[in-house]
Amino acid sequence: MLSLRQARTTAAAAAALPVETLTLEAAIGRTLARDVAAAFEIPHASTSAMDGWAVRGPGPWRIVPTSPEHPGEPLPALGPGEAVAVLTGSVIPGDVDSVLRTEHAHSAADLPADSPTADDRSGQGLLSAQPDTPDTQPGRNIRPAGVEAQLGDRLLSAGSIITPVRAALLAVAGTDEVDVVRRAGVALVLTGSEVITSGRPDPGQVRDVFGVALPDMLREAGAEVIAQERIHDDAQQMDEALAAASSASRPADLIIITGGTAHSRADHLRPALHRAGAATLVDSVEMRPGHPVVLARLPRGTYVLGLPGNPLAGFAALAAVGHPLLAALHGEAQAEAAEMSAAIAGEDFTGPRSGERLVPARQTFSGILAAGHDRAHMMRGIAEADVFAVVPAGGVGAGERVDVLPVPGGGAVRGVNARRRTP
Hints:
By secondary structure, the chain is α+β, with helices and mostly antiparallel strands. The chain is built from nine helices and 26 strands. Helix 5 (235-247) packs across helix 6 (269-275). The longest helix is centred in the last third of the chain and has 19 residues, at 311-329. The chain is elongated, with a radius of gyration of 31 Å.
């Protein structure tokens, strides 16, 4: 049996999947396979930060009669003591000293006839700055070329998730395509002779929860569900399901089995893995719920993740072991720490006698609060929870630091893993 940290470290040791090249739009939600550097300076030209007047030398300035229709329109070169109207984003010639905001300037036409700056008769008109404006300082309201990035600067590192704003950064840098890690293809095998998919269960029956929730949870974690099968608690069906998923025309990178992970006569996963020649990587974790989670690798390289059949236990095991495994398969940096963060306990959390306890909890301004209904078979607590509070032996007191994992498909995941795009 492994500790939670050991299990996550083991799962995070999986090698990343192959690389493919995608457009920026298609790559959102994927993991970068290689660093991306700036192909040119950002911005690639000096531009105006304001609508107003580009000026050269001390004022007042003679107005050059031109009126740009759009920021990309080239501006004329300025002589000493000249000004030209500019728009935000206009390319600034190298001889310009600063940009005077529209609201900080006035032209001769705006002044009384006896004003000392209103006697220009050249036909060009004069422009003056309001007293005490800082806009006449050299470089004022000009965005210099390369102020954000120089040629060759690393913009994003391999292992970074391409979020929408990161895709926008790469677009600014002129990137059209990126190399990303392929999505993990997941085959779901849902077990349980007592499980029904619709209607009211009779005594001895239960409704399916994993078939409803897992596909979307896995998509949010960046994976692609490529097959889904339901089997009874039967040894032969388990053998056949493992063989089919790992040898299909598109073999699964990961097979997720729900249920069958314990040691009763109705639990067939461990014997089936042994018969298939699998290497067991994680055989139970010292945590509650989710203790009987199993992680193995088949001879052909396909991973098998066995989730306990109780709903809360299964989802806790997915967060604890499944997420770092998927992060590693997707090439994410620091896969061992995938999704784990720290928070402040808003109340006392009782710890287990040993190992760790995963408690469905809500994030509030007062700190992390238990959501209740936290037995392995229950759903109400996790349905209201954002995170699992990872409570060590000895517990955590109010105001103390506590590690948290996002609940798969919960509110916290919507904020973090919604970076993923469904296939």
